[in-house]
Every structure is written in C-alpha cells, then in structure tokens.
Amino acid sequence: MAIVEQALGDADINEWIKQALLQRAKAINALHERLNEDLSLVKSDELMNDKKYRTNPNASRELASRAIRAIKDWNDNQPEHKWCITNKLISSLTGVTPKAIAKVVEGMGIDDYNAMQGLTPVVNRMTKAAVGSISEKVSIADVLGVD
C-alpha cells in the first residue's frame, strides 16, 4: 500500500482511480477496434510490412487465406507443377512464421485439399526443381481479401 500512497502523493485518490480506469478503457477499446477491423480491403503488402498490422492475429489469418487462394489458383492453372499447401509454403509467401501460420490455418481445409489433389510435401521439392521457388512464381503483394 505504501507504493500506492507514494505514487499518489498529494493527488485525490478518486481522481487517480478515474484516470487509471479511463486509460485502461481506452486501451481495451482500441484493442477491440483493431481486432474487429475488416482487413479484406487492405493490400497484402501493407499487411505484411506496416507495423500497425504485424502484431494483429487477424492480419496473419488474412494473409494465410490469400496465400492459400493464390496457391490454389496456381495449381489450377499449372496442373503439371502443383504445390502442396504447407505452413512453410504459406510462410514463404506471407512472411508470417510457420508456427503462427499453423495456428491461423486450422479449419481452412488444407489437409482435405492436399489429399483431394494427391499432394504431399515431397511434391514441393520436385515443383521447386522444375519451376523455382514459390515466391518467384506467386506473389500476394497486391492481392486483396476479396475477389
């Protein structure tokens, strides 16, 4: 309690508590606003590079979703050189760590897609040898979250 009294000094405790609660409420409201922001109209390049979005878990999910869509588009257009969608592959397109990707892609049906296409991670080595790295062939920098 002595620490609190020292911090308060001659200040009115009610005013001090009011200010502390106000500051905390502003921080909570700002966090809610940030987490509820619609990121579908923000360019991928901005989501990847703007400090404002780097710590937003929704930005990671949005980037992963865009990368998956871009890989599927590649696979549809290049059936002889398909990529198996993996956390590492998504990471190479988004800059988000594979560990963070693993959290955000749950429920996106990646395993089902890969199985349906007959793709395994080994395929990526062969595709890379044939056409180069995924980041040389596919970019999500200008992609938006809406088609």
Number of domains: 2
Q: Which regions are unreliable across 5 or more consecutive residues at pLDDT < 50?
A: none
Largest sheet: none
Can you write the helix and strand succession as a string? HHHHHHHHHH
Rg of Cα set: 22 Å
Tell me the overall shape.
Answer: elongated
- What percent of residues adopt helix (DSSP H or I)? 55-70%
Strand content: under 5%
Mind explaining what this structure looks like?
The structure is a single chain. By secondary structure, the chain is mainly alpha-helical. It folds into two domains: 2-35; 44-137, no CATH class. The protein is 67% helix and 0% strand. It is built from ten helices and no strands. The chain has helices at 2-8, 13-35, 44-49, 51-54, 57-77, 87-94, 98-104, 110-117, 121-131, 134-137. Helix 5 packs across helix 6 and helix 6 (87-94) packs across helix 7 (98-104). The mean pLDDT is 88.
Write the layout of secondary structure elements.
Blueprint (H helix, E strand, L loop, with lengths): L1 H7 L4 H23 L8 H6 L1 H4 L2 H21 L9 H8 L3 H7 L5 H8 L3 H11 L2 H4 L10
Helix pairs in contact: 5-6, 6-7
